[in-house]
Request: fold
Amino acid sequence: MSEMDAKTSATQQLEELTDAPPRRRLKLSWSGKLGICVVTLWTVIAFIGPFISPYHEADILDEALFIVPGSGELYPATDFQGPSKVAYLGTDFIGRDTLSRILFGARTTLGISLAATLLAYLVGVTLGIAAAVGGGMLDMGLSRVNDAFLSLPPIMLGLVVIAAIGSTIPILIVLAGLIYAASVFRIARALGQDVMVSDFVEAARVRGEGLWWIITREILPNVAMPLATDFGLRFVWIILFISSLSFLGLGVQPPMSDWGSMVKENLAGLPYGSIAPLVPALAIATLTISINMIVDDVSAHAGGKLAKKMI
Amino acid sequence: MQALLEVDRLKIDARMDNGGLLPIVNGVSFNVQGGEVVALIGESGSGKTTIALSILGYTKPGLEVTGGEVRLDGRDIISMPPEEKQQLRGKRVAYLAQSAAAAFNPALTIGEQVTESVVLHGQMSQDEANQRAESLYRALELPDPERLGRRYPHQVSGGQLQRLMAAMALCGKPDLLILDEPTTALDVTTQIEVLKAFKAVINQEGTAAIYVTHDLSVVAQIADHIVVLYAGDIQEQGTAEQIINRPGQDYTRRLMAAVRPTPEAGQGDEISKKHQRDVPALEVRNITAGYGRQRDGTPSVTVLRDVNVAIERGQTVGVIGESGCGKTTLARVMSGLLPTSKGEVLLDGESLQPDLKNRSRSQLQKVQFVFQMADTALNPRQRIDNIIGRPLEFYFGLKGKEKRKRIGELLDLVELHQDLASRYSEELSGGQKQRVNLARALAASPKVLLCDEIISALDSIVGANVIELLKRLRKQTGVSFVFISHDLSTVASFADEIVVLYAGRVVEQGRTDQVLSPPYHPYTRLLISSVPELRIGWLEDTMKTQEAKAGIDRVVKLTEKGCAFFDRCPLVIEGTCDREIPPIRNLGDGHIIECHRSEEEFAH
Reply:
């Protein structure tokens, strides 16, 4: 050992300047932190909403509650009321409490959209990576079927399917999931192909690694960041898709509340200065913008390199 | 007399996350006179590019000039308003970046891009600019100057593109030209031609130039004045003659030591004499391989033809040739990444399946591939200990404590600090990444290590250290190496045997001392004469030789018949070389030359 050491020191070792970048840790900006707070808040509400809400989502508030003492008005209007002690965020077009419906709706909206997005990702990423890794005929077949799927407008496809087999929550989830899986497939395939030709994948192949290792250890970690960025966007699209279906009366069925249908059903209140359509719109906006703020932070940490390729 | 450019106590700092300042350049001062070529030389991280960019009034994001001035004709550039800086760039100071391929827009013609800046700045009309460009093409000895402007960047070779960059920079008749490592990425033969053209055009135009590089032997050919930088400080400055012949500082001498020595016989290591000729560790026999769809057993593009190479145990075989000669393809065939169309690969005398899917795990373990670019060969999402640990787990089933211990040993072996194990590859420097890349291959305890241009992307000092490491590993582990490089002197200092590839054929093969001493194959001779020497005036001397006139700066072409080298060969026999496949001449003791000329004729 000592002989070897002597030999090493005898051969002149020249000092190298380190030009290595410093270690990088995930540092969230204030907007990312705010985003996490808002998303956490809505998630908590989705779980406990029904237990803390003042009324049930389907309750039409009694006229008696709105009687102003001493006014003599025995049958006051209950629809599109402004915020008061009776209904903190006012009432909707048939006199239901907006706050309660928001609290109940959080569960429906988040639940359906999340389930649908997860399904879209499960299907889209699995097939996309399979196409990227398998190549050849498999890639060709999957990609053409996918193109056909993408060429159909989502809303029309949704209408046809629901008209044929009816609208229940599981059907909505599967429908939205499959429709959006097509665009996830495209992104996953493109990202997968990019990583597939990189030297480290070749190094793994030359080592004799199986397909499962290559996919789970070499490819997926490298496409996770851009896919996470896309996840936020896709989630938002699915919320809007479910809302559109609800507006047409084919989505979440009344009296269940969901934020999307709340916006649409209360649109008539806008001319009267009602905040009923604004509150659910605000809920959707805060949730989706917060998700995007988190995603921005995370992808900035990832160097934005792969995220750029995605665009 | 006032100097054209005065860099006066320039200080540039990097702003760190915590608000502190990290000095990058510490008060550097030097002058450039009109018409003079000044070289900034130093390894990566020495601040040479930062200084060069500051002369354009530009600093990279995160850097700021915290002191000193850069004066062009007495006017400070740093404090100029942005509009004036814009006028200055391109008009008075021009910048020539390292990678020409990245600097050209593939969708526009060459002429449009060369003349764009001067027309935009309103210095010339389009017609005048076109004429000016044409005269520059002539000065840079580019082929077909009248019509070159109408071609697209992909239609010319890499060396020509590099010269076109110079035309682009010089089109506006700048007072000062900044060249940032313009020949680093080129083959030695191309480098000569580009250097010569740069030198000629700088003389003709009378432009002053700043030449940024890490390669002293290149500088010796072109610079009047040399500034040696280390970690943001000037170590030494003086005339080229003074620095090259009488270096005053230790650091300069170390840089010179890292310069590739002239390849000559007898540099191979002692081991070569000791080995016994038994079954080679790895052998390829009559290999034909290529890319594209196979038809009747031949791929649509055949890269390698009838290649025979045997790697004895504990030996190092160097594979050399210019880009496009099939060096990497040969390594890929050996590793099984590219299945052969004809011929076989033998490991310890046993025939291997052509496709790696059909090879056994222990066969895979014995042959390891070290990729050229450590940047892309390491998974950015895996920690270093996972990268090195995986082969241990995969081939030997090591787990937990044992695995950690072995990872520690491997890091020691490649001279990396244990702390790096928990990092990701992007947190390492280029040299460190290349060591991790090596450690991963060594983790498999291979019999044969295929090293594909592993030091080409590193600068000279880091590269020299990696070579030292390889030499030590060879002694310690007894691994056979296949060392692929376009740099003959590196190969010569390390290999026991050399295989010279040209256009997918072995043109010469033998022990290092046989290949590097006459008789040479004309192509070997060309390669040897193209390695720059650390000597002023070497470029001019070399350009006078027969080889240089005939063969430099041509693209390697794959041919179906005859000798692929015939259009570059100074000894070409018309009517024979271009038609018939040259015979293999066995000069004894394993030394083989493939040529129509006889041994006696090579001497010329």
